[in-house]
Backbone:
């Protein structure tokens, strides 16, 4: 930190903090920053940006670093020690990386962007490879470069010196950068992979977090930092110990407010370079009086004040007045009779959406009656009243019922509420819900049969789009876990190959946090209560509604697209193919040692035909385009474009499908060679993918034919709330390992067979009655005792502009079967390591494949099919309403057979989930299907990842492929990549509308 | 206000209305029963006397209107909760004007009035069950979804759940509150079914008191200073078996009230008054 530190001091400090781990890199960055500071103007601009715009801030900080780096790259780089090696095992070619950084260093905007991308990529690579040679000079450079790269985006903006433009640029850059980072980055990586490599950690990003009191907290985190890190930083800043009720949110490219997953890298979640977050209450404690510390109650009060003022938490006039009066008492103390114009300070703050003078007078009147009440007491009274409000802690989501009627779904501590207008028309308490799942834009809950009912019923709702469905599903999973479980369930596993959402609640449950709270032994921390001025933030107030609305539009489009995709997907031929492939996978799995991912059990991963993914890809592409044009406009355009894009993708078929099939004939680890065929696609790198990933994948990676079928896998996931889950240890840090373990466990425990879209399923039964299915499942479980989880992640949205944001949809089918060892994790990383795999057996890279789909072994399908049938059947039968929708998409449906009695060990409600994890970060959509089959003690896990990379010509598909494969390998070290299929679809990326 | 949802059953005022002579012949009814007007009037006088004298409520007595044969059943004209009064739009066309006088009376009590002006909305107060924590609105011949929505909008603090009224005129024709968290419910199948729905829809747990006669399940619970739990319920003469059930409520001050004539025109105990809690403060 040199002379100019002053301006950036905050940043630096933050950096330092974050740096704690990667000190060297951070220091280097700081240095760079300082250098940048030297460039006072830029810095100032940056500062200004920081102050003004959240985005700007973060970026600006980076900018200086970039500049500095550029100037002193060589210097800084050496100084910086790259800590990149953290996780990366892969070897990165230094050479490649080297060049890129330089480019970045030049700070040409375009180049920078690319560089950023490359940086990101390199970072990824770095992670994977860092350990190896990467550490050497190149690594340093990379690190430096990376930070610069990132910063360059900002810097570019800043350098240009036009705040608005800068911001826009930043946004664009961010969006592009992020997306590209993964997708494009690959391409760039290829070129300059070496540079970026390894020291990704070194790069710091400035995060801006809006706190509940209206202030912003800024800190630096490593670019690759996980959500947890930032969250802890914020809690530390707030001096908050009972933090499990809280979380960080970010606004995605669709203007939707999303919870930052603590277990995942921030960068991969936010999808843009907009490192802005908000600190919010995530789980509203039903009885705030049970909280241990006043500071926790205070923060809850702040959230509720905002909720009330924004109208999100509706209440009556009298209640508004009462709550407002407690707020005054807490913030100002006793009513001051001498105050000249008491109404003024009341009217200056927002207590209610429809605040008027009458209310303010009432507030004052009530305030007088609170004389003598301490702030803590006032907060307590506030909470005692707020908690009784019927909408307290209810997270609303727009949806339609089976008949297309607009409703709202409310997720709360007790279960799921259904509202029509303001009326509650139904309620599903958690104990009544056997399974929660989503497919595409459909959200399903399976209801425990009532006293007089014989069969379970499934109720379906239509969300605006698959993202909305997924978000709702995640919220349900988290709320159920938090409020109903003693300990969180272990997450499913792997990142890449697993397409199905492996998502799970990773934090402490309410029961755990209460225990932890009881152990808090510190003097009550002093904190200052600030006035509630800011109560009406747009962000806070609007999130739910505005978001949803925004979502709706997209959703609609998405729906259409989906339908299309569904049709495609469901083509019988395809289905059959899928089935066949699945069966193969199963076989392989059977033979091969079961992959580790236990998680799948609970979460059923479904191999979705990739409709959803495709959609995403398209969306991304679309988005990116707009960005290129105008960053500012991008957002709006994006949603729209996305939709079109989705459709387009479907139509277009120049998708490169990389299939990574890991076959584990024997229970052991099977080495799968992943041939990454990213060939020549884009530019530079040809590396192309032929990477043979030696990842020993237990599971066989089934490749889906991504082309026709659109992987919707991401969109599908299941969760069995009732299941008593054994704890999963921390899933967070190392997903792979944990997941693997979990999978194994699950495999053992869960015998449920989940079906994904596989052809067999689709044809036969999609619609059939659930009952039969269940029975079948049971049989399967008993017989094979195999659990199959398929998660398919299919297509990733590609952003054209971003160029290389290939959506990687890895499908992982973790089967935990007999072979424990075999828990293979396939980590296919598309990013940079095409080389790594080197063996591009299957990959067929086309020069310009815009879409790259890496579908890994879709093992599950066959089983999946059956499941799906049941699923559909149930729906149709039972629901009468809901079901209908689902049916059509046979492929996608992943079902868990479930919680079969026999199979599930103590996991009644367990998940046989197919989880689709979408790496939303870039343009890449990955769908992972994980199939686990337990037969005769052998467990086979097949993971099929479908990666859809959507992008402009610029996108380096090869890189994307390579990255995908890398990730897959990393994720599933134990698994081998057996097959990589690349389908290239050239679409008119521009299909919009 | 003592706070949200405090003091369930606390009442200070009651609004009632006289029995018009037209009730005997013109009041709406689901059966063909003949009503003895004088008996009905005596019955109602006794009812009001209980409220005023025995329970010490401030009774606001509105004059009968011969053109409104059902006007004695004031409950349907307004829903009062806390400081807010919702003036309803009764489902029966002939009863719409009953709200006029009611509105004036409630306004005089300084309640915050909300009027149901939507012409697509209908709601009878008899379909509204307030449990102290939430509302249940019966969707019946007299009450529709829109009416329930408006009620939900008027009482934002509370959850408002809709339940189907499978049989009988109103939701409260077969159920009512017998105490905090205690639902008195008829034993008929439709009544039990409705109760199940209510239980499913609620985040709260309710005890239930099942009485053999659906109509006997309509009683009036109050929690009054110096008197504690008070329950106005059917007489043993009218529903002997059900009365025995009420007798088991040891903690309540039980006050049997005759409703023999008014029940012929579908009038229940709760129908004949609108209870209000006007606290000293606020």
Residues:
């Amino acid at each position: 930190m040199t002379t100019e530190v002053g301006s950036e001091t905050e940043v630096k400090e933050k950096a330092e903090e974050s740096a704690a781990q990667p000190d060297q890199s951070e220091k280097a960055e700081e240095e760079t920053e300082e250098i940048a500071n030297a460039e006072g103007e830029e810095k100032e601009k940056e500062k200004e940006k920081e102050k003004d715009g959240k985005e700007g801030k973060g970026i600006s900080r980076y900018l200086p670093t970039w500049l500095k780096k550029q100037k002193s790259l060589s210097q800084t780089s050496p100084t910086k020690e790259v800590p990149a090696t953290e996780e990366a095992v892969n070897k990165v070619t230094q050479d490649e990386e080297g060049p890129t950084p330089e480019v970045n260093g030049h700070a040409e905007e375009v180049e920078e962007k690319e560089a950023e991308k490359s940086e990101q990529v390199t970072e990824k690579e770095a992670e994977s490879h860092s350990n190896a040679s990467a550490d050497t000079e190149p690594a340093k450079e990379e690190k430096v470069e990376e930070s610069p790269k990132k910063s360059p985006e900002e810097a570019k903006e800043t350098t240009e010196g036009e705040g608005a433009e800068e911001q826009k640029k930043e946004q664009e850059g961010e969006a592009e950068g992020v997306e590209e980072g993964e997708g494009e980055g690959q391409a760039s990586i290829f070129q300059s992979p070496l540079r970026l490599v390894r020291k990704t950690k070194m790069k710091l990003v400035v995060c801006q977090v809006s706190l509940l009191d209206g202030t912003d907290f800024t800190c630096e985190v490593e670019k690759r930092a996980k959500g947890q890190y930032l969250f802890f930083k914020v809690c530390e800043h707030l001096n908050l110990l009972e933090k499990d009720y809280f979380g960080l949110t970010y606004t995605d490219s669709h203007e939707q407010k999303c919870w930052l997953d603590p277990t995942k890298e921030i960068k991969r979640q936010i999808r843009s370079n907009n490192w802005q977050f908000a600190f919010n209450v995530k789980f509203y404690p039903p009885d705030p009086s049970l909280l241990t510390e006043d500071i926790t109650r205070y923060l809850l009060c702040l959230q509720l004040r905002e909720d009330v003022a924004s109208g999100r938490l509706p209440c009556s006039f009298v209640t508004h007045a009462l709550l407002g009066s407690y707020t005054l008492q807490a913030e100002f103390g006793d009513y001051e009779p001498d105050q000249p114009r008491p109404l003024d300070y009341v009217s200056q703050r927002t207590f209610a959406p429809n605040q008027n003078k009458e209310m303010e007078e009432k507030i004052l009147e009530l305030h007088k009656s609170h004389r003598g009440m301490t702030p803590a007491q006032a907060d307590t009274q506030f909470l005692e009243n707020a908690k009784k409000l019927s909408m307290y802690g209810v997270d609303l989501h727009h949806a339609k019922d089976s008949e297309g009627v607009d409703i709202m779904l409310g997720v709360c501590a007790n279960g799921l509420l259904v509202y029509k207008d303001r009326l509650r028309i139904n309620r599903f308490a958690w104990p009544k819900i056997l399974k929660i799942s989503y497919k595409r834009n459909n959200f399903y809950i399976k209801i425990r049969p009532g006293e007089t009912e014989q069969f379970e019923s499934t109720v379906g709702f239509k969300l605006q789009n698959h993202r909305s469905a997924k978000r709702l599903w995640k919220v349900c999973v988290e709320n159920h876990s938090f409020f109903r479980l003693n300990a969180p369930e272990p997450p499913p596993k792997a990142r890449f190959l697993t397409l199905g959402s492996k998502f799970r609640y990773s934090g402490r449950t309410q029961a755990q946090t209460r225990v932890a709270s009881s152990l808090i032994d510190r003097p009550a921390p002093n904190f200052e209560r600030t006035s509630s001025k800011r109560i009406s933030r747009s962000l806070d107030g609007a999130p739910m509604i505005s978001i949803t609305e925004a979502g709706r539009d997209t959703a609609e489009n998405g729906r259409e697209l989906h339908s299309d995709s569904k049709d495609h997907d469901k083509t019988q031929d395809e289905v059959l193919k899928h089935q066949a492939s699945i069966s193969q996978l199963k076989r392989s799995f059977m033979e091969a040692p079961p992959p580790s991912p236990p998680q799948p059990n609970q979460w059923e991963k479904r191999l979705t035909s990739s409709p959803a993914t495709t959609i995403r890809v398209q969306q991304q592409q679309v988005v990116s385009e707009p960005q290129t044009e105008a960053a500012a406009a991008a957002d709006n355009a994006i949603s729209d474009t996305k939709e079109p894009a989705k459709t387009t993708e479907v139509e277009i078929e120049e998708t490169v499908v990389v299939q990574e099939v890991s076959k584990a004939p024997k229970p052991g680890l099977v080495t799968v060679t992943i041939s990454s065929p990213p060939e020549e696609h884009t530019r530079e790198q040809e590396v192309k993918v032929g990477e043979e990933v030696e990842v020993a994948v237990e599971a066989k990676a089934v490749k889906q034919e991504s082309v026709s079928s659109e992987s919707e896998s991401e969109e599908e996931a299941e969760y069995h709330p009732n299941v008593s889950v054994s704890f999963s240890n921390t899933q967070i840090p190392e997903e792979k390992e944990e997941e693997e373990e979990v999978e194994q466990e699950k495999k053992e425990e869960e015998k449920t067979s989940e079906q994904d879209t596989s052809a067999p399923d689709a044809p036969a039964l999609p619609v059939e009655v659930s009952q039969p299915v269940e029975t079948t499942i049971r049989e399967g479980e008993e017989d094979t005792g195999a659990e199959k989880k398929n998660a398919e992640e299919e297509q990733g949205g590609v952003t054209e502009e971003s160029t290389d944001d290939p959506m990687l949809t890895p499908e992982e089918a973790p089967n935990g079967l007999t072979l424990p060892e075999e828990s293979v994790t396939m980590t296919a990383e598309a990013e940079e390591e095409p080389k790594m795999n080197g063996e591009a057996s299957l990959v067929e890279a086309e020069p310009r494949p815009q879409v790259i789909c890496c579908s890994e072994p879709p093992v599950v399908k066959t089983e999946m099919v059956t499941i799906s049938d049941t699923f559909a059947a149930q729906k149709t039968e039972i629901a009468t309403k809901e079901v209908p929708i689902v049916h059509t998409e046979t492929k996608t449906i992943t079902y868990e057979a479930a919680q079969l009695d026999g199979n599930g060990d103590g996991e009644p409600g367990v998940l046989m989930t197919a989880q689709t994890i979408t790496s939303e970060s870039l343009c890449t959509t990955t769908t992972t299907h994980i199939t686990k089959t337990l037969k005769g003690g052998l467990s086979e896990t097949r993971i099929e990842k479908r990666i859809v990379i959507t992008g402009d010509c610029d996108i380096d598909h090869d890189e994307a492929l390579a990255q995908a494969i890398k990730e897959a390998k990393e994720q599933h070290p134990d698994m081998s990549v057996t097959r990589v299929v690349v389908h290239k679809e050239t679409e008119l990326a521009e299909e919009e509308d | 206000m003592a706070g949200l949802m405090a003091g369930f059953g606390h009442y200070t005022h009651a609004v009632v209305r006289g029995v018009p002579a037209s009730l005997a012949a013109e009041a709406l009814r689901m059966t063909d029963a003949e009503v003895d007007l004088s008996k009905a009037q005596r019955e109602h006088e006794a009812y009001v006397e209980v409220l005023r004298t025995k329970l010490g409520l401030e009774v606001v007595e509105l004059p009968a209107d011969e053109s409104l044969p059902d006007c004695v059943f004031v409950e349907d004209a307004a829903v009062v909760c806390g400081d807010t009064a919702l003036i309803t739009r009764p489902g029966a066309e002939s009863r719409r004007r009953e709200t006029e006088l009611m509105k004036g009376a409630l306004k005089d009590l300084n309640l915050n009035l909300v009027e149901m002006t939507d012409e697509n909305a209908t709601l009878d107060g008899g379909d509204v069950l307030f449990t102290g924590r939430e509302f249940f609105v019966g969707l019946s011949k007299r009450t529709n979804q829109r009416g329930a929505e408006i009620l939900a909008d008027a009482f934002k603090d509370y959850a408002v759940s809709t339940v189907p009224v499978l049989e009988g005129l109103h939701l409260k024709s077969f159920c009512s509150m017998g105490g905090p968290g205690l639902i008195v419910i008829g034993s008929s199948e439709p009544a039990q079914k409705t109760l199940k729905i209510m239980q499913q829809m609620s985040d709260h747990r309710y005890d239930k008191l099942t009485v053999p006669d659906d109509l006997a399940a309509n009683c009036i619970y109050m929690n009054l200073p110096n008197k504690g739990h008070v329950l106005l319920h059917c007489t043993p003469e009218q529903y002997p078996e059900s009365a025995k059930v009420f007798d088991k409520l040891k903690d309540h001050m039980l006050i049997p009230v005759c409703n023999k004539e008014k029940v012929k025109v579908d009038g229940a105990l709760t129908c004949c008054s609108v209870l209000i809690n006007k606290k000293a403060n606020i």
About this structure: Residues 543-570 of chain A form the longest helix (28 residues). Confidence is low (pLDDT under 50) at residues 1-201, 532-713, 723-928, 986-993 of chain A.
